[in-house]
Recover the amino acids of this structure.
């Protein structure tokens, strides 16, 4: 069965080592787009200091980026299904480079917002394609594959946070945008030449009772008509909103708490609290995505969601109460991002399990737009904090995560199993009826 309209000429053969190589290249591509989201917080205050546009206006660029990145993924996924992943990832590489080049020259909010649109298109092209390709190559290890791919996005900024912060301090934020933008885009463009989809569909190795997987490949219109999709979408929005707010606002939060430049020493390392927090956040985020993906392959998607969302609520509550302590700030944000990032491994894996592999790129792309919806709440966090303080923002995020944890066990789990078993029963009844008709 051909998984892409590329056909046998461009699609890759089924070789165990080859699919792991595809996974690694996808991870590297994801690492190259990570700074567009997770490195952004380093630029907010320097941009404001240079142009005095205000944090809320500058953070609107972040929201525009995330909305564009996520809401266009289904369209980009259609191009992947029609033309293959190579051309889409090449396009992404060009666009992410162009975005940061534009940022380096932006002397108005209009140009800053335009750069955010360009960057969102590029990042979405890379993100949606790489995750979708991983789901197709690893239906037997969807949680691990999606988690490892998403880890590139989560941890990709870890190695470059310090160099970017150093360049901003020494050469200005414009030079940092220009240098890292061109470098990141070039690496993605080159790797795009080697990324391919599998030639044939790869069946799961075994059936697991705690990990139900559909035998039916649902088309995108069928997925959009299913209630379970929208329940998953809602929970995704609830959890993603807190994480995006924290990722975008961690710099302003640290400055408002007056701990951004406070030296923190942990495990023999010492650096400013904000830089330490962001670096550690990326490491924990990157580790958490494949780890929780692997856990979900073992104990089930919903049980893993409950553990992760519940832990996130506890960490946000800790930040609300004790976040002005620099050590607590660094450790609590690290643990929080360690459990937050798993939404980018669990939801793609759950989507593939529920709706099948054939249209996994497009179906997951539709679910991924929930991140864009959640990003609309990021500027609202600035407004709430200005009126009620950051504690109020954290309390709202705690409530959303706690509710999402309960919904995972008591709503998503039974509804998803009912959907899979019900559709398979309908399919079996239809096949039986057809056989009887032919016999008659």
């Amino acid at each position: 069965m051909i998984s892409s309209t590329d056909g046998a000429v461009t699609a890759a053969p089924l070789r165990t080592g080859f699919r792991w190589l595809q996974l690694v290249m996808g991870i590297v591509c994801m690492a190259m787009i990570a700074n567009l989201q997770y490195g952004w917080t380093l630029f907010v205050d320097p941009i404001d200091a240079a142009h005095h546009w205000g944090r809320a206006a500058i953070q609107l660029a972040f929201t525009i980026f995330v909305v564009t990145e996520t809401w266009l993924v289904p369209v980009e996924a259609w191009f992947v299904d029609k033309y293959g992943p190579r051309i889409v990832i090449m396009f992404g590489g060009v666009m992410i480079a162009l975005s940061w080049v534009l940022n380096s020259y932006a002397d108005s909010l209009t140009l800053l917002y335009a750069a955010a649109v360009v960057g969102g298109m590029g990042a979405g092209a890379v993100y949606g394609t790489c995750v979708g390709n991983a789901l197709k190559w690893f239906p037997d290890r969807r949680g691990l594959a999606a988690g490892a791919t998403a880890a590139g996005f989560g941890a990709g900024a870890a190695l470059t946070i310090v160099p970017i912060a150093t360049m901003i301090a020494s050469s200005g934020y414009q030079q940092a945008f220009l240098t890292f933008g061109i470098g990141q885009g070039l690496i993605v463009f080159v790797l795009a030449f080697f990324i391919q989809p599998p030639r044939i569909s790869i069946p799961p190795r075994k059936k697991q009772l705690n990990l139900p997987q559909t035998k039916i490949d649902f088309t995108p219109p069928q997925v959009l008509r299913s209630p379970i999709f929208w329940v998953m979408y809602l929970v995704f929005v609830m959890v993603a909103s807190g994480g995006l707010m924290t990722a975008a606002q961690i710099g302003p939060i640290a400055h408002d708490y007056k701990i951004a430049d406070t030296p923190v020493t942990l495990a023999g390392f010492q650096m400013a609290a904000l830089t330490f927090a962001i670096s550690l956040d990326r490491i924990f985020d990157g580790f958490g995505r494949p780890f929780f993906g692997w856990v979900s392959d073992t104990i089930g998607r919903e049980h893993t969601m409950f553990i992760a969302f519940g832990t996130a609520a506890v960490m946000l509550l800790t930040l609300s109460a004790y976040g002005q302590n620099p050590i607590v700030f660094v450790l609590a944000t690290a643990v929080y991002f360690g459990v937050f990032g798993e939404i980018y491994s669990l939801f793609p894996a759950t989507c593939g399990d529920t709706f099948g592999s054939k249209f996994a790129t497009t179906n997951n792309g539709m679910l991924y737009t929930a991140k864009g919806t959640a990003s609309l709440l990021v500027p609202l966090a600035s407004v709430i904090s200005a009126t009620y303080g950051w504690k109020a923002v954290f309390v709202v995020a705690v409530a959303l995560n706690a509710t999402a944890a309960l919904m995972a066990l008591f709503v998503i789990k039974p509804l998803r199993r009912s959907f899979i078993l019900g559709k398979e029963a309908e399919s079996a009844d239809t096949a039986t009826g057809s056989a009887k008709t032919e016999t008659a």
Q: What stands out?
A: The CA atoms of residues 80 and 88 lie 6 Å apart. Confidence is low (pLDDT under 50) at residues 1-10. The two ends are 31 Å apart (CA to CA).
